[in-house]
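Recap from last week: sequence in, structure out.
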Amino acid sequence: MTIRQITVVGTGLIGGSLALALRQRRLVERVVGCDREEILAEACARNAIDDGFTDAVRAAEGSRIVVLAAPVGQILDLIDRLGPCLPPDTLLTDVGSTKAEIARRARIVFGERAAQRFLPGHPMAGKELSGIEQADGELFRGAVWFLTPLAGQELTQPLVADYIHLLEGVGARTVALGAEQHDLLCAWTSHLSQMLSTALAATLADFREDFAADFGAEVDLSQVGGRALRESTRLAASPYHIWRDIALTNTENIAQAIQRLEQHLAHIRENLRTPELREEFERARQFKNSHRGTETQRRD
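Predicted structure tokens:
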């Protein structure tokens, strides 16, 4: 089936990039956006959408696929609002960074028809900066796009297969797994990195204030630290409103990952003058080297 029109609710970085990619590759005839008026105006100016509406119900009219590209909390609200309004032959999907709570809400709203009406998804792509200004039609090229099917949902069923075809058309690699597995995996591979970068930047902010108080001089730590510090704190620029919802809907997994990190940091602190520090460095180096080949392939 050829999808004539698709609606993207939320035309920020992820939604705007998806809309832009679909239009650049002419994978659908028409892309409709939903957001605030000023964001829609920018999305139109960037040729990311053909038309836009501030009301999600109106924006979804005439679309066979509706993508919820918003923070997790808003996605949950949109499922409640849009679910009862959409025609039964329209597929609702999302790009939320956590999946278990979203899948649970979809089952509540759609009931026995949930597997035919909703497909949870999450692209492992993004930047530390958000907004339509950061949209990139190549953002998903080579990126994993997780799909966490609901019970009884087949990825070969109508509309679901069509949507997967669109995702592959924008360069993504779709991978299916359970919602709980997804949330655990992302807590360790994505959410922990964000919390670490945030904690490091906050610690450095404290140090900068202490340094100025002790020595009567301010110092630009980003320049002193060089590339390593800039890369380590890059994610600290990420917006709180997005990560608040992730923390609220994946609390236990993130807390467990942070606790394990705390244990390793404590071990390093306690062994700064013992051979066990070398063992920790060696273990970390082996992990990094084991992934170096994969990283090279992805860049290629």
